[in-house]
Amino acid sequence: MTQQVQSDYLLSATGLNKNFGGIKAVSNAEIKVNQGSITGLIGPNGAGKTTLFNLLSNFIRPDRGQVIFDHQPIDHLQPHEIAQRGFIRTFQVARVLSKLTVLENMLLATPKQTGENFFQVWLNQSQVRQEERENKQKALGILESVGLIEKAYDYAGALSGGQRKLLEMARTLMTNPKLILLDEPAAGVNPTLINQICEHIINWNRQGITFLIIEHNMDVIMSLCNHVWVLAEGTNLADGTPEEIQTNPDVLEAYLGE
Ligand SMILES: Nc1ncnc2c1ncn2[C@@H]1O[C@H](COP(=O)(O)OP(=O)(O)O)[C@@H](O)[C@H]1O
Ligand SMILES: [Mg+2]
């Protein structure tokens, strides 16, 4: 991939701070994600990576700091409003609804539908049905592309852990995202499915979706990412190409004792 110009950030955060009681989970952290990139975020356990994701996507409020997405501050927005602008994230432990089918889980992610407004439903039933048909077609198309089509009418609870992670990723595509944050997409996933997930990420990226990925599996980071940020003890330790990061003595030291 060609190097993006420095200012072409889809996401940029500076001076982020979050304390939990006495613990400085995130301390004056910054991160920048180039438009069109697959950017990595690594660091030892407890480094503050998930907390940083929560701050970036406004699942928790920072004590200080600012997040700019698509050239606009998003500090004042709720996570669902941020998702409507094209910025969506997954969770370290996949959040799928076990007692709904795989297809129903996909459909829950659709942006605001006409059918949710009572009067519009009453006035325009055919438009609602048309939207529902289109969303279902879209969901089935995505499930087909990730190899989950056979499971469309199974309960999500019957999926393996890895398939649940894949479903959670597939579901983000229902909202036409510009940026997807993935929290440990390979954790607890078998090697075959990890390879498939990596291929999907590369394909989605080629279709124009930017990624920021937390991952402990260094093979995944090295094979996917254009640029990697390293957090340790809540703060920035380094950032650079995967090759630079792999040979950075400070990074190697931070991982000793892991
Ligand atoms: N909701 C919370 N309440 C209290 N402490 C928290 C909370 N979330 C995270 N922490 C603490 O913040 C630090 C960073 O955690 P986390 O962001 O989950 O790290 P990572 O994802 O890099 O493993 C840890 O010390 C963790 O125990
Ligand atoms: Mg984490």
TrEMBL record:
Keywords assigned by UniProt, alphabetized: ATP-binding, Hydrolase, Nucleotide-binding, Transport
Entry annotated with the keyword S-adenosyl-L-methionine: no
Write down the EC number. Answer: 3.6.3.28
Q: Which Gene3D superfamilies match?
A: P-loop containing nucleotide triphosphate hydrolases
Q: Classify the source by domain of life.
A: Bacteria
**Entry-linked InterPro entries:** AAA+_ATPase, ABC_AA/LPS_Transport, ABC_transporter-like_ATP-bd, ABC_transporter-like_CS, BCA_ABC_TP_C, P-loop_NTPase
Q: Which GO terms describe its molecular function?
A: ATP binding; ATP hydrolysis activity
Answer whether the UniProt record assigns the keyword Nucleotide-binding to this protein.
yes
**Record domain ABC transporter: where:** 11-258
Gene Ontology terms, cellular component aspect? plasma membrane
Protein name per the record = Neutral amino acid ABC transporter ATP-binding protein
Tell me which species this is from.
Stanieria cyanosphaera (strain ATCC 29371 / PCC 7437)
